Model the fold of this input.
Amino acid sequence: MIDFDPSTFGLAHTYQKEDKDEINTLALPSAPQVIYKTLNGPTQISGGNKLNNFKHGTTTLGFVFKEGILLAVDSRASMGSFLSSEQVRKVIEINEYLLGTMAGGAADCQYWLAYLANHCRTYELKNGSKLSVAAASKFLQGILIGYRNSGLSMGCMIAGTDTTGQHLYYIDNDGMRLKGDIFSVGSGSTYAYGVLDNHYRYDLSLDEAVELGIRAIYHATHRDTASGGVVRVYHIHQDGWTKVHDGIDVVDLHYRFAQQKGLVGDGDEAKQRLF
Amino acid sequence: MDSIFGLQGGDFVIVACDGSIAHSILKIKETEDKILKLDDHKIFGISGEGADRNSFGELVHKNHCLIRYKTGSYMNLQETAHFVRSMYAQAIRSRDGPHQCNGLLGGVDSDGTPSLYWLDYLGSLQKITRGAQGYANYFLLGLLDNQYKPNLTKEEGIEIIKKCIKELQTRFLIAQNKFIVKIVTKQGIEAFTI
Done:
């Protein structure tokens, strides 16, 4: 997969293909030499209509605040109307200082984030210093641009810490890479944005941020059928990342939040009279 | 859906862009800077879907630097515009197809003459004094034609751009709240958000 030619170790080796040719112009990065083509073309499980073509059943969110970055995700995987799993791990631990979230095709996200992890480690060994978050996300963007029309489906966030601080990037299968402070990806993202935009401040404390992340995911899972399961929360700070919550059941959250409002949570708030 | 528009004055060029990035019905980001700084006196505002805008912008920027290292100096505006046009033109019948983005390239040469160029994804190139890319054309060309006069001062130019932004916010269906404006003069580039 990657060419481990020992004679290149220790050199700042950026060109691997065109070294012997004269460099006339810099070209767009070509896709790595891994054979990956879908057999039947891109599948259309949901989103035949362009306007509602969300990145498949999930809700993931991340935001930057004064203590670092908070990532919160749900854990449901659905195949059409069948729930294949309620315990998926949608935060992928790339290495001790980088995390990636998964939305869209699970296989695509897992494979390419593992490829990224490989690249990060190789860079660290060859160059003696860790790859920055900006460089890691740009590397992934380059791959996705190369595979642009091959039917990949990924809407992931890369979050991590490096010498310049904690950074959050959104990358999707169209090859778009955006740096930002708040992102939410997936079919439940619109519901999560509603809660996030309302309560987000940069100077949240860690506890407030965790509570915000949990609430936003809960609200998304409540209204979006394709999101659910448990909430997992990660915190990225200058020393790496910490798993704050490994799995809080959203059903428990539903009754807890209802009780806080003095409601029972049985859905009968409107007290409809049938006769 | 990006709005890029600009105008050239007596000794300056302004290029403005909206800051929003949208994905179906969601606005993912509102503060994206779509105007690339090629060097201290050249800016290139690019309009197009996310990946194309980003990757073509990177391509132009890096090749611009490569030419500077190979020849020892930066190209002037006319050379840069023609170089970018040739990059568009080479891509049209290539395997990956044309670069799906349009642009406005503006800047000031070392002798102080400003220029603004309109570039298209098929390799069209036109030197203009005022113009826009995308839907902004429909709303702003009338206004720009009406307000433009030769040898505008920088303050007059900024006023016209503010009127353009107000017009887009009034009449354009898509809400574009934040705009990024960059002005190039002989002293360099100033940027601010409106």
Observations:
- The first strand of chain A starts at residue 60 and ends at 65.
- The mean pLDDT of chain A is 84.
